[in-house]
Design brief:
Blueprint lengths: L1 H18 L4 H15 L1 E6 L3 H14 L4 E6 L2 H13 L7 E4 L3 H4 L7 E2 L8 H4 L21 E2 L8 E4 L23 E4 L6 H13 L1 H10 L3 E3 L2 H10 L4 E3 L3 H8 L7 E4 L14 E5 L5 H12 L1 H7 L35 H14 L6
Parallel strand pairs: 1-2, 1-3, 7-8, 7-9
Antiparallel strand pairs: 3-11, 4-11, 5-11, 6-9, 6-10
Helix pairs in contact: 2-11, 3-12, 7-8, 7-13, 8-13, 9-10, 11-12
């Protein structure tokens, strides 16, 4: 009888142990082991050397057993390529790091993403207190499961080289319509996905369609999709007013001692957009290295990964890392709209259509 009781007690203990969830560290160790067995991970990220550095170097040091293959491009350059690959049955990407909402208009409806939350294992990643506005504030898609924003920066609407422009002449956005500024403006092409289109959204909300129509149609603006070129032309003064020009690209020139008087222009805008830049992450459907992909996304959203992200001169949504650009941390005192979320696509479409219709054929 006593033996039977001992046997039953042992069974109860064993059953209890069996239903106790594995500790997070055990789960993580198992995941890393499986990722090392796969041996590599394929990641898409933002364009330029700085994005390659912050999205690769820290990971490679932390996980030397996983080869990281990285390609950095703008979404407008790679989305169609990914769509064509998938149509041909080629699935070579594990992780997509980039901007929205262009991917929410193309890759998401095509079924290119899998839910992200099940891949998040590290407790620090899911810690609500670690994120500005809480973890769930980072979802960009309507379903709140496919695309997560880890960046939230107030990117300048306009960069101005004050060596070539008088502060007395440019005080408001209406001043951009002055004849003296014709042929002095360059715009990150608002007919394409990118920062220039986002600035157009802000202008539409603040100043209306008539203002945009006049700006597009009358000022002989130069349009380009080359972010580096935009910054260089503003810095050199060829086009001293850069609409949607990338602050991080301008910063690269300023670190070399040129363009010191290029600064952000906010004018009389009342409603701003905190934006995510190239700072959202999604996991690809049919990823060739699913375990390595999970390790990568957990690293990226960890304090370590987001500390690296700050080197881009942009700001992480994590509140436990130092802002990469303290002057561009969105203020709680200013009204902001997240114009890159999926529910803002109709406004984005309106701006793109307006630009396509009103920019003169000579607009390059």
């Amino acid at each position: 009888m006593r033996k039977t009781s001992l046997w039953l007690a042992a069974c109860v203990v064993a059953m209890a142990a069996a239903i106790v969830p594995a500790r997070a560290d055990e789960t993580w160790d198992s995941l890393v082991k499986a990722a090392n067995a796969e041996g590599e991970v394929d990641v898409h990220g933002g364009p330029g050397k700085i994005y390659e550095q912050v999205l690769t170097e820290g990971f490679r040091k932390a996980y030397p057993g996983i080869k990281l293959n990285f390609v950095g491009t703008s979404g407008r350059d790679v989305i169609l390529q990914i769509m064509r690959e998938r149509e041909a049955g080629v699935f070579k990407w594990d992780i997509y790091v980039g901007g929205t909402p262009s991917i929410l208009q193309t890759l998401k409806p095509a079924g290119a993403f899998v839910p992200l939350r099940p891949a998040l294992v590290l407790p620090e990643v899911l810690d609500d207190k670690a994120w500005r506005g809480g973890f769930n504030a980072g979802w960009m898609d309507a379903e709140k499961q496919f695309t997560f924003a880890f960046d939230y920066t107030f990117s300048p609407l306009v960069m101005v080289n004050w060596d070539f422009v008088s502060h007395d002449d440019l005080k408001t956005f209406a001043d951009l319509l002055k004849p003296q500024f014709a042929e002095k403006l360059i715009w990150d092409d608002p007919r394409l996905p990118g920062q220039g289109l986002l600035v157009g959204q802000v202008m539409l909300i603040n100043f209306g369609a008539d203002y945009l129509t006049q700006l597009f149609g009358k000022q002989k603006i130069a349009y380009t999709a080359n972010r580096r070129q935009e910054a260089e032309w503003v810095v050199r003064g060829r086009y001293p007013i850069g609409i949607g020009a990338a602050a991080e690209e301008v910063n690269q020139f300023q670190m070399q001692g040129v363009g010191k008087n290029v600064e952000a222009f906010r004018g009389d805008v009342k409603i701003f957009s905190g934006d995510t830049g190239f700072g959202t992450v999604s996991m690809m459907d049919r990823a060739p290295h699913p375990n390595a992909a999970k390790v990568y996304v957990n690293w990226l959203l960890s304090k370590a990964g987001q500390s690296d992200w700050g080197k881009t001169v942009r700001n992480s949504r994590r509140v436990d890392v130092t802002p990469g650009n303290p002057s561009e941390v969105p203020s709680d005192a200013i009204p902001y709209k997240n114009l890159q979320a999926e529910d803002q696509i109709p406004i984005r479409t309106e701006v793109g259509d307006l630009a396509t219709k009103t920019i003169p054929p000579s607009g390059q």
